[in-house]
Amino acid sequence: MGTPGGGRSFITPRFQRHFNIVAFANFDDNSMHSIFRSILKWHFRIGGFSPDVSGMEQKIVAATMKVYTQIQADLKPTPLKTHYTFNLRDFSKVICGMTMPTKKELTSQDQALRLWAHETTRVFGDRLINNEDRMWMLNAVKECTRAPFG
Q1: Structural domain includes residue 17
Q2: Are 99 and 39 in contact (CB under 8 A)?
Q3: CA torsion sign, 123 to 126 to 128 to 133?
Q4: Among 25, 37, 115, 130, which has the minimal tally of Cβ within 10 Å of its Cβ?
Q5: Model confidence, pTM
Q6: CA 142 from centre of chain
Q7: What percent of the chain has pLDDT above 90?
């Protein structure tokens, strides 16, 4: 409920006392990097992945962060696209998808990069509704693979 006006009615303090307000501050980039990097590092170490793959955790998190910030900045929710709300849960879904394969299934840097691109387009791209936004997403993934991964 919002402030009165614009079709919203006044809420009495007596009624409001039955509800709580829950809010939290967004993580800064360094916190998100360290949290998700440690998750990937732990998974790659416990899973016994090759050094090529296990050394990519920083690049994977940096590329995901870049796509995440770009999509939040460029694809804002509109009345037609109300579901274009991207949050920390989407970021964590990409990282969670990177932890699904075993060392037998993920043996090279190329496979890890392809898995990251797939997970990113699955989490962020499947929500997009028109070809213009899908092309924007593919270009964003392409640019984010060039920067951290070379």
Answers
A1: no
A2: yes
A3: positive
A4: 25
A5: 0.81
A6: 16
A7: 59
